Every structure is written in C-alpha cells, then in structure tokens.
C-alpha cells in the first residue's frame, strides 16, 4: 500500500461527521400519531393505544410515577388513566359519602376473580375542616384494571397499567402521539373499557413522523357531564 493510497483511505472530517449523522439517524426516535375513530367516524377520546414494534430493541420500562385518582360527585376522576407499572396511586374521596375503591383486572378475569384478587380500599366521607381521606396502592401487575365502588354501582373507572413506554391514551380529538419509537414495522392495538370485541391489531410502518387512522366499531360514550 503506497503512502498516498493510505492517506486517501484515512477518514476525512467530513466522513466522520457523516458517520455520526448516520448513526444519529438510526438512533433517531420516531413518532407515530394514532387517530382513533368511533363507530360513527368521529374521534374517540380515552382509548388506550398500545404500539408494539416488531423490533423493540433495548426497550426501557417506563419509570414509575406518583399518580392521583379522586372520587368526586360520585365519579372517579379521571375515568381512564394510563399509569406505568410499579407506580403508586393516591386515591382520595372528596365526597360527603363513604366510598370504596375496588380494583380488579378488567374483563373476564375480573368477573371470575376471588375476593382476594386486586385490592379494596375504604375511604370514609369527607368531614368539614379535615383533609379528605385517602389511601395509596402500588400497581404491580400490567394490564387493564377496572375500578368500582361497592356502595355506588355507577362509579366506574379504569387504569391501564403499562409495562411499555408506548402506551398512550387518546385526547379529546381522538389522537394519541407515541414518541421514541424505533423505526420499522409495528402493530397498533387498542384497549377501551366496556369493549365487547377486541379490535384487530393494525399493522403500521413507523417512520420519523408517521401517522395512522384506526377506525373501530366502538360506540361513542354518552356525553359526559
Ligand atoms: Cu361510592
């Protein structure tokens, strides 16, 4: 090898910069914007969007958080939460009635559950001049949970306990923006409370800025409040 040839082979500053840029592109976080439509074709809020990349790579579990769910005017607020696995949830009762928080796996698993399954909290009625009663629960199992109250059958809510960072609830425009995805093929699954039939997964190609519309046969809930 001549010295000259050797010189030519040496990577130039430009080549090094290009290599870094390329590396940056490969590692670049991609975004998928998912719009979920109800049976009537209108945006569906509060649907849980779960993106499952074909090659998730070294996926990090989402960091646990401290979440809050309140009981107010005979309702759970919020009605649907996406909370990372291992998080602690603070439940508070702001009403002047006693409430329970009965947490059970959603769907059939919950129907067949024994009394020991899930968790039960008792939150006494609010008393003037005192802090509302509250209790915490740590979510140690991934998947959807339904919340109820033994005293008030209409009090219903859900928590989707996420073991992946790619689980996002749709906003009022029916949109869930899922960030930091690896590029490439992925599946989009949905979870929605009271859903009778599981929606088939949607295959997508995730790019730097990709979007998909997912029509469903889910009925719009009646107008809330
Ligand atoms: Cu209650």
Automatic annotation (TrEMBL):
The keyword Transferase does not apply. It is found in: Periplasm. Residues 1-29 form the signal peptide. Keywords: Signal. InterPro entries: Cupredoxin. This is Plastocyanin.
